[in-house]
Amino acid sequence: MYDIINKTYFKNLINQKAYGRINILEKLIQLLTIGFVRANRMRYHLNAKTNIAQREKIKQSNLSCGKLASKYEVSTVTVAKWKKRTDTKDKSSKPKTIHYAVDKSFWRLIAIVRKKALFSLDDLVLNLSPYINKLNRDNCFRILRLIKLNRLSLEEERQKKQFATYQPGFLHIDVFYLPKLMENGKKKRYYGFLAIDRATRMLFLEIYEHKNNQAAADFVMKCLAFFPFKIHRILTDNGKEFTLKEAKNRWGKIKTNSLFDIICNIAGIKHKLTKVKHPWTNGMAERAVRTVKDHTLKIQRYQSISEMYQGIKYFEQHHNFYRRQKVLSNKTPFNVMVAWFVKEPKIFFKDPAVMLKNR
């Protein structure tokens, strides 16, 4: 109904001085009425030879089928069909029995998983295809559309974007590149390692000369010493500094664990990996890296590695003890950590107040 209401037409209509406000309103009502009629008019079959008025006349006529057929230029079969019909509307061309590749008994399972887990289409197919035969992306989308679950509501979208709630000890770890610095007449690259706790947003930063498994292992050891609570889970990407999963050498697939994984196993930490080529899965660390760069590297040009280290460490202290965050109800990460210490002292192995001495 809206295809006839053209923005340019109304713009020209308003610019014309001959039309007053009342005339414009009347014209708008007229156009909307025409659009409503067009939207609700009868839809004929593509091969229909007659309209509703002709069909009514055929039903009410006492002429023979042959004479009516020659009059309306249709076959006698068509005339006989409309004489017998009680309704003059075209029947649906939809088949009486629709055969689906996925049995309808599994539709309820797909609906429940979609509602409870809020999986995307790809995740839904990935998780359910081992249990449902012939399930693929195309027929799964058609099923969701039929049961009216192909789109999540705004509330479900917000719920899907929310992080699951954890106690302190779930670290998001990431690596980022630092600017090259001149040393002994040559430019040298350094790498920043970042860890942020999901519950408290406490931040820990370190700088290394190399981005390898030794640097990652040293960083996780420093994390164990820095954070006053027990670390129970770590989320990283699939970089070789963190894991050797799916890594290969000239002899084939590497079967040994990385140094990072070995330390996590010894410390009783569950090491989780993001989905391959899905960096946004570790979005908290990615956003923290951007925040660090915005407040350090993008506003100040460092001349040496010592200046860069001091600048990054200064921001770390500022973030942990003074920077109030909206997501933490306008509290600092340290204040939230102290609140957790009062609430759950068992998950801490030392008093958070000890960190105040190192500021």
Which strand order spans the largest sheet, edge to edge or round the barrel? Answer: 5-4-1-6-9
Low-confidence parts: 1-7
> From the helix content, strand content and strand pairing, which structural class follows?
alpha/beta
Briefly note the CATH topology name of the largest domain. Answer: Nucleotidyltransferase, domain 5
Shape: elongated
Total domains: 3
The percentage of residues in β strands lies in 5-15%
The helix fraction, in percent, is: 40-55%
Total helices: the number is 14
Give the CATH H-level superfamily of the largest domain.
Answer: Ribonuclease H-like superfamily/Ribonuclease H
Shape-level CATH architecture of the largest domain: 2-Layer Sandwich
The description of the largest β-sheet is: 5 strands, mixed
Sequence of secondary-structure elements: HHHHHHHHHEEEEEHEEEHEHHH
Number of strands: 9
Mean of pLDDT: 84
